[in-house]
From TrEMBL:
Residues 241-456 form the Histidine kinase domain. InterPro entries: HAMP_dom, HATPase_C_sf, HATPase_dom, His_kinase_dom, HisK_dim/P_dom, HisK_dim/P_sf, Sig_transdc_His_kin-like_C, TCS_sensor_his_kinase. Residues 180-233 form the HAMP domain. Gene3D superfamilies: 1.10.287.130, Histidine kinase-like ATPase, C-terminal domain. It catalyses: ATP + protein L-histidine = ADP + protein N-phospho-L-histidine. PROSITE patterns: HAMP, HIS_KIN. It comes from Paracoccus subflavus. PANTHER family: HISTIDINE KINASE, SENSOR HISTIDINE KINASE YKOH. It is an enzyme of class 2 (transferase). This is histidine kinase. One of its GO terms (molecular function) is phosphorelay sensor kinase activity. It is found in: Membrane.
C-alpha cells in the first residue's frame, strides 16, 4: 500500500483531536444556550399572548350589557376617546354600516382591515391581535397592539447579539487557542515518533515540566526510545567488536595462505585449493572492513568534518573515473547534463564519493553486460537529488526494504561477487547527511535516489569541493 499524501496545514489543523474537542464543546455550549434562550422566548411569548387574550375578553365583556346600537356606539366612542389607537382598538360597526370608535374597519370576507379615522390619531406599526363579536345588531371589534411582543423580540435579539454571540466568539477563541497549544504539543510528539520511525533513536519529546497526559505520553516515548537506543548501541558495539577482533586474524590468515600458495607448484590440486582459501579469506576481510566502516559512519564522528561540497563536481569526478572501466566491461555509463553552477550540499566529501562509488559499482555488478547506467544530479526548492539508474533486472518492490539490511542478498545476486553491504553503507552515509535513500522502479531496472537537504545558511560558499587531481576515496567493492 502506498503512503497517504501529505496533509495540508489546514487539514492537519481540522483533523487535530484538541481542535475537534474545542469546537465540539463550543458547539454544545452554543446549542444549550440557544435552546435555553429559545425556550425562554417561547414561554414569555405565550404568557404575553395569554395576557393579550385576557385583555380582549375583558374588553368584550364590558360591552355585553349594551343591547341598543345607539347605546353601544356611544359607549364605544366614549371609551375610544380615552384610548390611544396605537395600543388598543375599539370599533363598533352599526347595523347601517357606520363605524364608531378610534379606527375604521373594512371587512374582506372574514378578514378585518383597520384604517385611521379622518382627523384621528395614527395607528400603531406593530400590528394588532383583533377579535370581533356580533353585538347590538352590529359588529364589535376590539384589538390589542402586538408592541409588547415586538419589544420582547428586540430584547431577546439584543440579548443574542450582545451577550450570547460575543460569549460564543470569546469561548471559541479561547478554546481554539488552548487547542492549538495542545495541538502543537501533539505535533511535537508526532514529529518525534516520525524521527524514531526513520531510525533517529536520539530523538526525544523532552520534558516540558507539566504533569498531564501528554507529558506522561512523551515521557513514555522517551523511555522507549532510550531503551531502543541502548539496545541498538549494544548490538552495534557487539558487531563492531566482533568485526574488529576478527579482522586482524583473518588478514593474517590471508597473508599466510598467500605465502602457502606461493610455495605450491602451479597447476597442482593443492594450489587450486589454496587459491580458493585466499579468495574466501579476502572476502571475509572485506566484510569485516565494511562492517567497521559502517559502524564508524553511524558513530557520527564524521559530522565534525562537514563542509559545503559541490555534489555536481563530485559526481562528474566519479563518472570520469568509472567510465573507462565500465566501457571496457561492456557497460554504458553516462552522466546527465549537470545544472548550471555548483550544487552545494553540506557533508563529508570522502563519504559522499564513497556513496557514489558504491551505487555505481552496485549497478555494474547486478546488471548484465551491455546495460546502460545513468548518473544524474538535480535540485529543486527542497532537495538536491543524486540519482543512479540502470536498465537491468531491478529489485522487486517487496524486497527494496530488505536490500538495505546488512549482509542481505537477493536470490539472483548470490552468484555475483559481493557481500550484501554496499547499499547498507550507502544508507549509513545518507543517514549521516540527513538524506533520504529511495529505491524506485526505472521501467525497466532500478532507480536509486538520494535526496539531500538544501543548505539553508545564508552566505555559505562552496568549500572542500573535489578537484580533478584529488585522489578518489578508497575503492571498496562490495
Amino acid at each position: 500500500m502506498g503512503k497517504p499524501g501529505r496533509l495540508t496545514p489546514l487539514s492537519r489543523l481540522l483533523g487535530s483531536t484538541p481542535i475537534r474537542l474545542a469546537v465540539g464543546l463550543i458547539a454544545v455550549f452554543a446549542t444549550v444556550n440557544i435552546l435555553s434562550l429559545g425556550f425562554a422566548w417561547l414561554q414569555l411569548r405565550s404568557n404575553v399572548e395569554k395576557q393579550i387574550a385576557t385583555n380582549l375578553d375583558q374588553q368584550i365583556a364590558g360591552f355585553r350589557m349594551a343591547d341598543d346600537p345607539g347605546t353601544l356606539a356611544a359607549r364605544v366612542d366614549t371609551e375610544a376617546m380615552a384610548v390611544d389607537p396605537e395600543t388598543r382598538i375599539l370599533v363598533f360597526v352599526a347595523p347601517g354600516g357606520e363605524s364608531f370608535g378610534n379606527a375604521r374597519v373594512q371587512m374582506r370576507g372574514r378578514e378585518i382591515d383597520l384604517e385611521e379615522r379622518e382627523g384621528g390619531r395614527d395607528l400603531g406599526d406593530d400590528g394588532y391581535r383583533l377579535r370581533s363579536v356580533a353585538m347590538a345588531q352590529g359588529l364589535l371589534v376590539v384589538g390589542e397592539s402586538l408592541a409588547p411582543i415586538r419589544d420582547m423580540e428586540e430584547t431577546f435579539l439584543g440579548l443574542l447579539v450582545l451577550s450570547i454571540i460575543p460569549t460564543l466568539l470569546i469561548s471559541l477563541g479561547a478554546g481554539v487557542w488552548m487547542a492549538l497549544a495542545s495541538a502543537r504539543r501533539v505535533g511535537h510528539v508526532e514529529a518525534t515518533l516520525e524521527q524514531l520511525a526513520r531510525g533517529n533513536l536520539f530523538a526525544r519529546v523532552a520534558d516540558d515540566g507539566r504533569d498531564d497526559d501528554l507529558s506522561r505520553i512523551g515521557a513514555g516515548i522517551d523511555r522507549m526510545a532510550e531503551a531502543q537506543g541502548a539496545a541498538m548501541s549494544a548490538l552495534r558495539q557487539v558487531s563492531t567488536d566482533i568485526a574488529h577482533d576478527l579482522k586482524t586474524p583473518i588478514q593474517r590468515m590471508s597473508v599466510l595462505l598467500s605465502d602457502l600458495r606461493a610455495r605450491l607448484a602451479e597447476g597442482s590440486a593443492e594450489a587450486g585449493i589454496a587459491d580458493q582459501a585466499v579468495a574466501e579469506a579476502d572476502h571475509a576481510a572485506s566484510v569485516f572492513q565494511s562492517l567497521l566502516m559502517i559502524a564508524q559512519i553511524e558513530g557520527g564522528s564524521a559530522k565534525s568534518r562537514f563542509v559545503c561540497v559541490d555534489l555536481a563536481q563530485v559526481a562528474a569526478t566519479f563518472a570520469e573515473i568509472y567510465t573507462p572501466a565500465a566501457e571496457d566491461s561492456g557497460y554504458h555509463l553516462t552522466l546527465e547534463p549537470l545544472p548550471g553552477g555548483p550544487v552545494p550540499v553540506r557533508g563529508d566529501k570522502v563519504l559522499l564519493g564513497q556513496l557514489i562509488a558504491n551505487l555505481i559499482e552496485n549497478a555494474l555488478r547486478h546488471t548484465p553486460t551491455g546495460s546502460r547506467i545513468v548518473l544524474g544530479i538535480a535540485r529543486d526548492s527542497q532537495d538536491v537529488v543524486l540519482t543512479v539508474s540502470d536498465d537491468g533486472p531491478g529489485i522487486p518492490a517487496p524486497e527494496r526494504a530488505n536490500v538495505l539490511r546488512r549482509l542481505y542478498r537477493l536470490e539472483h545476486s548470490r552468484t555475483t561477487p559481493g557481500n550484501g553491504l554496499g547499499l547498507s553503507l550507502v544508507q549509513a552515509v545518507a543517514d549521516l547527511h540527513d538524506a533520504r535513500l529511495i529505491l524506485r522502479d526505472n521501467h525497466p531496472g532500478l532507480r536509486v535516489e538520494v535526496r539531500f537537504p538544501v543548505p539553508g545558511a545564508k552566505g555559505v560558499g562552496i568549500a572542500g569541493s573535489f578537484q580533478k587531481d584529488d585522489p578518489p576515496p578508497t575503492d571498496r567493492r562490495q
